[in-house]
Amino acid sequence: MSQGMAYFANPGDAKTLKPHLRRQARRLGKEPEAVITDAGYGSEENPACLENRGAAAVVKYSTRRKEQGRKRREDKFRTENWEYDRKGKYYVCPNGKKVTYRETKKEKAGGGCATTADRYECESRGYCRMKKQCAAGPGTGARGGTSGCCG
Fold first, then answer.
1. DSSP string, the chain
2. Of 95, 128, 138, 151, whose Cβ has the fewest other Cβ atoms within 10 Å?
3. Same domain, 54 and 101
4. Angle at the Cα of 109 (from 102 to 116), degrees rounded to 5?
5. Domain match, 92 and 129 both
6. Tally of domains within the chain
7. Residue 112 — pLDDT band, cuts 50, 70, 90?
């Protein structure tokens, strides 16, 4: 078992994982088989990057504690709390409308790793009496990057 340590001027750990992995691969002569990190590396991009490299990964993400809280679990405007129909590929929003899968987009994140985001669209496509609450902030709206079921 090898371990590596590196120091970077950039205080944000999330952006230093890729250069650290490259440096360790050069030093060891091979890609790491497994990587364990703390919450500082818990960006959306890093687990995807490790998966693309074929490394087993344990990456604690920084919002884990918040995501397990009761307030979040009971928030009816968070898509993870919506009913999902796998066969029809749609969610049912708090207003009872279908929010249907439209496409998967591949995007390149700031550090260069590719991520994917599923885009969903609400059947109302405009007026909705709950639009203000639904499209209010991060984590609301259909999973994978839309800004609200009505947004």
1. --------S-S-GGGTHHHHHHHHHHHHTS--SEEEE-GGG--SHHHHHHHHTT-EEEE--TTHHHHTSHHHHT-TTBGGGSEEETTTTEEE-TTS-EEEEEEEEEEE-TTS-EEEEEEEEETT-S--TTHHHHTSSTTBBSTTT-S-TT-
2. 138
3. no
4. 25
5. yes
6. 2
7. low
Owning domain of residue 124: 70-134
Examine the domain organization and report whether 54 and 84 are in the same domain: no
At 9 the pLDDT is: 57
What's the pLDDT tens digit per position in 119-142?
888 887 777 888 777 765 444 444
Residue 141 tokens read as 């709206």
Statement to judge: residues 108 and 81 lie in one domain: yes
Quick check: is 149 in a domain? Answer: no
Residue 144 corresponds to which tokens in the numbers above? Answer: 């994978």
Whether 147 has a pLDDT exceeding 50, the answer reads no
Q: What is the pTM of this model?
A: 0.51
